[in-house]
Design a protein that fits this description.
The protein is mainly α. It is 68% helix and 0% strand. The longest helix has 51 residues. The termini are far apart.
């Protein structure tokens, strides 16, 4: 028997689109999601703009400080006073660096508040005295801030998607309309479900894209490539949760049970799976003992202090081109101690970095199990604030510090200090130029 009221596919899509527009739940949830995302992304965009502006101001200050140092050493003749001034310059702000960031900084700018991203090359030991540059801040207040843009999308968009998609068929059945819907559909319920879910996916994608767009528009360093990749990630993320909601709506359970299952799925995929991956990553690559690291640091400090004179003599013996000034006096007596400490402590700190990298690689390898975690990691990679990028930055700081010390330590140890002509040759942060001295 031929079915009545056969609806073409286009009419099905039109009908489902009209139904979604008239649904009060859709207007409320999508409007609330859009409002929250706009607020969070605007704040993130302004933070990214402020970071880039501060980086530019740092470059200006460093250039001015170099000019000031040039004037200082023009007025200071070579000798012990110039050597002390050279030491103070070597441990000052001229060696400051900032972590390089990516085109999508606004998508991971919150990580800059909790990572050491402003290290400096110094003639002191960064591993013994690691006070951060800039103003002091309360870590409790810093960590209690709002989540970043990807995290907020990962938290809220699934709830809206499940509220709109889970229970679709259960609602039709409980309202007594499922039989009529079957009669009207010429090819079963699949085209109707596809249209309903398709409109919801388009609505969620549109809201997510509009809500997060201010973050990238306000960031002067954002690029079209980063924006395109982010839009694709949002579309895939929304598709996963819409598909999950559609699957739950097809289960032979009540509408209340479908929504309860949807809430459980959100809790499991958003919180339980990432927490479980973090535990497994820690077990797979446990961090070195922090207590043992503290003991090693103290032993290195005490040992270098007791061997101060021997370390100075050993340094002069390994650098015959520098006239020995023995017995060494400060700062020539102190610098070899720092070099000896870092020879022992830098490998220790790198073991921590290597374990962090292994844990991050483990989590990224299994991030597909949690769509929200995958989205957050995508945002961090676009921002250039992911674990791999930060570890690469720390390696660059170590390399810069090696060049910094190779240039300045001989000027301190020969007790004559820098000359005005040497100021222009001070190493700069970033990749070393060709033919530069190796550490």
């Amino acid at each position: 028997m031929k079915r009545l009221n056969v609806l073409p596919s286009l009419d099905i899509w039109r009908a489902e689109g009209l139904r979604l527009r008239r649904l009060p739940l859709a207007r409320v949830t999508l409007g609330a999601l859009l409002t929250v995302l706009i607020a969070v992304s605007t704040a993130a965009g302004l933070e990214a703009r402020a970071w880039r502006q501060a980086a530019t101001e740092d470059e200006i200050r460093l250039a001015a400080a170099r000019q000031a140092a040039l004037g200082q050493f023009r007025e200071r003749p070579p000798g012990p006073a110039a050597a002390q001034a050279t030491y103070q310059l070597g441990r000052g702000e001229l060696g400051a660096t900032r972590m390089p960031v990516g085109d999508g900084l606004a998508l991971g700018v919150q990580r800059l508040e909790v990572l050491p991203v402003r290290e400096k090359a110094t003639l002191d030991s960064r591993h013994v005295d690691a006070r951060p540059l800039g103003a002091l801040r309360n870590p409790l207040l810093t960590e209690g801030g709002l989540p970043g843009v990807p995290a907020m999308v990962a938290l809220l968009l699934p709830l809206v998607a499940l509220a709109l998609c889970a229970g679709l068929l259960q609602e039709e059945r409980e309202q007594g309309r499922l039989g009529l819907l079957r009669v009207q559909a010429s090819h079963g319920l699949a085209p109707v479900m596809a249209a309903a879910l398709g409109w919801r996916w388009l609505a969620l994608c549109g809201v997510a894209m509009l809500g997060t767009l201010p973050a990238l528009l306000l960031d002067p360093g954002a690029s079209l490539a980063a924006t395109t990749f982010w839009v694709a990630a949002l579309a895939a993320f929304a598709a996963v949760w819409v598909a999950l909601g559609g699957l739950l709506s097809c289960l032979p359970v009540s509408g209340a049970a479908a929504m309860l299952l949807a809430l459980g799925a959100w809790l499991l995929l958003t919180f339980a799976v990432p927490a479980g991956l973090a535990v497994l990553a820690e077990r797979a690559s446990p961090m070195p003992s922090r207590l043992a690291a503290i003991i090693t640091i103290r032993d290195a400090q005490q040992d270098s202090e007791e061997r101060e004179d021997a370390l100075a003599r050993a340094w002069y013996a390994s650098h015959p081109d520098v006239p020995a000034s023995l017995p060494a006096v400060w700062p020539a007596s102190f610098v070899p101690r720092v070099l000896e400490q870092d020879k022992r402590l830098r490998p220790l700190m790198r073991r921590f970095d290597e374990r962090r990298l292994k844990q991050a690689a483990f989590v990224e390898r299994w991030a597909w199990a949690s769509p929200g975690l995958a989205l957050v990691l995508t945002g961090e990679r676009l921002a250039g604030t992911d674990t791999a990028s930060h570890a690469r930055y720390l390696r660059e700081v170590d390399a810069f510090e090696d060049r910094w010390r190779a240039f300045l330590v001989p000027k301190v140890m020969d007790r004559r200090g820098l000359s005005p002509a040497d100021i222009g040759g001070l190493p700069r942060a970033g990749p070393p130029p060709k033919n530069s001295p190796r550490s």
